[in-house]
Structures are given as C-alpha cells and as structure tokens.
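User: I'll paste a sequence; please echo it back and then give the predicted structure.

Assistant: Echoing your sequence first, then the prediction.
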Amino acid sequence: MARDRKLAVAMMAKYEPLLESDVELERIKLALECCISPPNVLKHGYGGVDTARLKRTISLIRQGYGLPRELEAEEMFNASFLPPEHDRTIK
C-alpha cells in the first residue's frame, strides 16, 4: 500500500465494488502521513528509533514517575533483530 497506492485501491475494489477510488486514495494518503509513515519512519524505517527522541522520552518518564534512575536507550531498544534499514524503508 505504501509503495503503490493505486494498486492497493485496485485490490480493495475487487472486494468492495462500491469503493470510490479517489476517496480511498486520499484516505491512504492521510493514513500514511499521520500514522503509517510519519517523518520518524521515513527517516529511520519501520521499527527504527530516533535515539535522541527515545532518550528524551525516558527522561520525561523517569521524572514524571519519580523513578530512581534513568535507563539508557540501549536498555529499552535493541535494533539488532530488525532487518537491514533498506528493507524497512519506503522508497
């Protein structure tokens, strides 16, 4: 769907003949922009993490809950199980 929106709509139309292609293309566009492919995903690929952002989040959570220590980003996220970045990005 992310790589070929028109193909995705054509496939959906096979199962839902009342579908309006132009409306569905716009829905896909909105879904990709807000939820499926936000800037962080475009930059780091699906499953990737912006380490600086993760560190800020950890710090905020520690402060908010009064936790005794701040965890390292590496304690929270390990990318070694992910496929190579080029396989996780939208081109």
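Residues 5-88 form one domain. The helical segments are 5-15, 21-36, 39-44, 51-65, 73-76, 85-88.
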